[in-house]
Design goal:
- It is a single chain.
- The chain is mainly beta.
- It is built from three helices and twelve strands.
- The strands form three sheets. A seven-stranded mixed beta sheet has the order 1-12-11-6-7-10-9, with helices on one face. Strands 2-5-8 form a three-stranded antiparallel beta sheet, with no helix packed on it.
- The chain is globular and about 55 Å long.
- The two termini are 28 Å apart.
Length: 241
């Protein structure tokens, strides 16, 4: 796969408008942890879609989903949802991965969904490492029922929509691949929701915003872990390992 072509692809990223929060003000808190990622530290390239390269800026990462575990939800919890977002994706792509250019920290940013997983059974409080993804899969993994729950599509579906070699529906987990010329640290929010319904009744190519909309009125608790990633060497060097 030619990762160096990212800047030349007809990249489609949906800029989501303000959405009503799915989480009520009185929701309880979940504790989210990972043996794979330290909160506030750099995400290892094993769990990333793209990794640094000595030549050509980037190469393929391991794209293994990290292990994620969380505290048991409050009474009435019947299922969980896990959604991973990067809110630091540039909204203007003119200089995206372009030689001789950098993307400033203060440019407008939008959310990018990396993992949409719903209908995780209420007795489950852990997703094991590599259970939902253990490698890059050109054209994506299928959405729908999977071992840990029901997969939605992530935003690589739109990202690769104009790339003949890579286009497809990207279900489940696909890890970080921020622009290699971005001066901003990208933050990856692994958010777990405890829900009072067994299923959100989502099917087909449902997205992160679809899942959040379906959760409204059903969230009993929420918690998150935040990892960091950068492919721009001066920025990556400053991240906590």
């Amino acid at each position: 796969m030619r990762l160096a072509r990212f800047g030349a692809c007809g990249v489609i990223i949906a800029v989501f408008g303000a959405m009503m929060s799915a989480v009520p003000a009185d929701a309880a808190s979940l504790t989210v942890k990972s043996n794979s990622i330290k909160s506030g530290h750099a995400i290892p390239s094993k769990y990333a879609f793209c990794a640094p390269a000595a030549q050509g800026h980037i190469s393929g990462g391991g794209n293994v989903n990290p292990q994620v575990t969380w505290s048991k939800g409050p009474k009435g919890t019947k299922s969980y949802a896990l959604i991973v977002t990067d809110p630091d994706v540039p909204s203007v792509l003119t200089d995206f991965n372009k030689e001789g250019k950098t993307l400033p920290v203060n440019m407008k940013r939008v959310a990018f969904y990396h993992w949409v997983l719903v209908d995780i059974p209420g007795e489950v409080t852990e997703i094991g490492e590599g259970v939902d993804s253990n490698a890059q899969v050109p054209r994506g993994k299928p959405p729908g029922p999977a071992k840990p729950g029901v997969r939605g599509i992530n935003d690589y579906t739109g990202f690769f929509a104009s790339d003949a070699q890579m286009k497809g529906n990207y279900g489940g987990y696909d890890g970080p691949c921020p622009p290699w010329n971005d001066l901003r640290v990208h933050h990856y929010h692994f958010t777990v929701y405890a829900l009072n319904v067994t299923s959100l009744n989502l099917t087909g190519n449902f997205t992160g915003p679809d899942a959040l909309k379906a959760m409204k009125g059903h969230v009993l608790a929420k918690g998150e872990l935040v990892g960091e990633y950068s492919l721009y060497p001066p920025v990556a060097a400053k991240l906590k390992k």
